[in-house]
Design a protein that fits this description.
The structure is a single chain. The termini are far apart. Helix 1 packs across helix 5. The protein has five helices and six strands, in the order ααααββαββββ. The relative contact order is 0.26. The protein has a single domain, classed as Nuclear Transport Factor 2, Chain: A (Roll).
Length: about 200
């Protein structure tokens, strides 16, 4: 694992420890797929110089090409329900070990332990509803509507009511890959960073 990935996981784990201790959420955290800071590149040149490890992997689809799997959609909705009610441990158990996770502004993180899958769920300070789902190969493309969730680390604030998009790979009843997608589904995938709307 690269130094950047180790650093991001260390920060997520630190956040998990603070959250478990009952501290309130961070005002600058990620929603259910949304980092409320605007990380969208300002222009094409910035997008072209984006570090490779912050780009969405080339094999991850940016848009749906057909209907979503009913099984995958059911798992995703159950995960969101657990997250929304603040049951972080239950939400974490919807992620496989190992699994992959990429939110706005992060490299693809490899989740290999119970503490790491709890940390990534704690880092999602918003809850969400799956408003629209579609399929793209093995992935489910989800349009989320952000909500104020309960429990440790909750701090959606002005992000509440906003939208976000994600590509999620569900296999065997578990989330194996989770990627925050850009809001513009027509973006060039070779120049795309996971990004969230400013709030």
């Amino acid at each position: 694992m690269s130094g950047a990935r180790r650093c991001v996981l260390a920060l997520l784990l630190a956040f998990a420890v603070v959250g478990a201790a009952g501290c309130g959420g961070s005002s600058g955290g990620d929603g259910a797929g949304v980092d409320r800071r605007d990380t969208t590149p300002d222009n094409g040149a910035a997008a072209q110089t984006l570090p490779d490890d912050l780009k969405i992997p080339a094999d991850v689809p940016l848009r749906a090409t057909g209907p979503a799997s009913k099984t995958a959609t059911r798992i995703i909705r159950r995960w969101l329900a657990a997250l929304d009610r603040g049951d972080i441990e239950r939400a974490a158990h919807f992620f496989a070990l190992p699994s992959k996770f990429q939110n706005a502004g992060t490299p693809v993180l490899h989740i290999d332990s119970e503490a790491e899958r709890i940390a990534i769920n704690l880092s999602l300070t918003c809850g969400a509803r799956a408003e629209e789902t579609g399929g793209a190969g093995a992935y489910t493309i989800v349009q989320f509507r952000l909500t104020e969730r309960k429990g440790p680390g909750a701090a959606c604030g002005p992000g509440t009511g906003g939208t976000a998009r994600g590509a999620i790979l569900v296999v065997g009843g578990r989330i194996h890959e989770w990627y925050r997608l850009p809001d513009d589904e027509s973006a060039d995938p070779s120049q795309v960073q996971a990004s969230g709307p400013s709030a």
